[in-house]
Each structure stands twice: as C-alpha cells, then as structure tokens.
C-alpha cells in the first residue's frame, strides 16, 4: 500500500484508536489494527455479503481493516513522531485498550465526591491513573509473551509483535518488568498521598497486579475459560473501588453498583475478541467461553453484555435521578455494534466496544455530577424512596 493511500485512510477512520506496526519485509510484515485478524478482513460466513455498511461504526471499522494502517501513522495516539523502536514498544502496549481503565478510574473519583469528599485530590487522581494504566499495560505485554510462547500467535494473529520479530521476547519481558516496577512506584506514592490504610491499598493493588499477570501468565486463566471472570472483576469492581478508596480513605460496597455497567461492557469487548479468535484458539488447544458457547451462543451473550447495562440506567433514571439517563444516549451506538456482529464484521468490535464503555463512563460521571447540581431531578422521594446508606453500603426500600 502506498503512503498516499495510507494517508487517505487515516482521514476516514479518525474515531478508531488502533494501529498496526510494519516490519522490515514489506507487505509480509505489515500488521493491522490491534483488533483485526490475519489479513485484516474478518471471517465472513457464506450468507453474509462481503462488505456491509450497517452504520458509521461498522463502516469505519471495515474501512480500517481493508486499508491496513502502517506503523508510521497513528491517528488515535500520535505515535508517528516517535522513533521506530519506541513506536513498537508503544504499540505492544495496545493503547486502544486503555479506555477500559480510564473509565473506571474516572468513575471511582466521581463517586468519591458523591461520598461527601468536598474536593478531589488531583495528585491522587494522577497517581491512581498512572498506577492502573501501568498494571494494565503490563498485563497486555504479558499476554503478548505467553500467547507467543504457547503457540497461540502466528502470522494470522492480530498481535504479531513477536511473530514478525518487531520486538524480541526479551524485549517484551523487560517492558513488562519496567511497567510492573513503575506501577509499584506509583502505588508507593499513593501510600504517602492517600488516607487509605496501607493494608487496604496493598490488597487492592496487588489483587489487580496478580490478576493482570494470571490472565495468561502462570496457569493462564484465559486458556481454561476463566479469563472472562477475571476481566469482569478487574475492569469494573476492582478498578472503581481502588480509585474510590484512595480518595476517600475507606472501603465500602456501594460503588460496585455503579461499576457493574462498565464491567459488563469491558467483558463484552473481551468476549468479542475471543469470539473472533475462537477457531485459532481452539486449534492451539485453548478454551474460552466463546468456544464453549459456539457462534450463536456467543452472539446472544454479547447482546446481553452490551444491552443489560441500559436496563439499569433506565431504572436509575426513573427511581434515583433523572440525570442518570445520560448514558442512554449511547444506545444507538450499541445497536450499531450489534449489527456489526450480525454482519460478520468482528474485527473492529473489541476496540469499538471499549470506546463505548468509555463513553458510557463519561456520561455516567456527568450524570452523577449533575445530580448534585440539579436536586429537582432527584427521584428519591415519597413512598418509593430508595435510601442509599453510603457508609454501610446498604440499599433499603420503604
């Protein structure tokens, strides 16, 4: 592909946040987006037209898959100015996936204000975000390493960092060690800045760190159909609770209610990834929920994970506060993603679903902040009043 074609493709896909590196051997070493597969055209069944345009999200995803962005162009993250080797390290982190961490951190900080904290400590916010992103990035490179040495990655894989020798296994090991070390340093900084007792901070942090490693490292929970449960816990309840607790100085359970929608959407992104890779994972001897359910079952599970949070938002808007209806504005995008699945365009779904989760988190945070400023929209009154006992983490009805 010429540089002119590549430049043109980037203008059409500015909402997509992924990029594939190119190696030293021309087209043979070109890598597509972090969420594409093989030749970057997703597998399409015999009953599905080769090119389907079901909406902007699906159209842009398929455009990106067919145009194969090279390592020198990065519309989403501005990696182009970086030296070539540094770009390869940056791409190995799969930065498109970081939205799954940014949303929970923002939500946890917003909930801290709901808990009565008058003003957020921006230093704690920054240190929390760096800590979570470091552990997330380290988990990504651990996944790259173990998928490669266990034979899951090949020339048709979405992540060919090691297959195409863009980096060596030793480079990936060093990168993971640096990220875990950096995460420990920022967690240590939080120990000095945060009012949260050290034992509680350590419990939450090392719970996240060990989970990011065990997903593919050690026993490899991903390979025995337990990775889905692990991700459901990490990128929702644990991340939100960590962000909330380092601000407020105490642990409680009520933030977990608000973390559930983000956890479900992040799990939907992972499930879409596993459904796309089901055939190759099965050949390599792996076992995921997508393999167990098959194509039809995987589709229905994705729909459940994608749409069930909106039922919660609709209930909250009518029973708690009208401002909590804001995340419902993303429902049309969710329907477009569902149509992408039905049309066989699975290649872009993981990244697109993660972006949906970030949008939901942003609107949920906005709704929570507006709830304080617009008490007239609060529905918690009368015989149907819902009493949230914040410090006891209980919900009672009267």
What's the quick description here?
With 398 residues, this protein is mainly alpha-helical.
Which consecutive residue ranges, at least 5 long each, have pLDDT under 50? 1-56, 59-77, 381-398
Average pLDDT metric: 78
How large is the share of residues in beta strands? under 5%
**What CATH architecture of the largest domain would you give?**
Orthogonal Bundle
Q: Tally the helices.
A: 13
What is the rounded Rg? 21 Å
- The rounded distance between the terminal residues' Cα atoms is 66 Å
CATH class of the largest domain: Mainly Alpha
Write the layout of secondary structure elements.
Layout: H1 3-12, H2 56-67, H3 84-92, H4 99-114, H5 122-149, H6 169-193, H7 198-214, H8 227-248, H9 255-276, H10 278-283, H11 289-319, H12 331-342, H13 349-373, E1 386-389, E2 394-397
Antiparallel strand pairs: 1-2
GO molecular function: 4-hydroxybenzoate polyprenyltransferase activity; antioxidant activity; nitric-oxide synthase activity
Biased composition (Basic and acidic residues): 48-57
Pfam families: UbiA
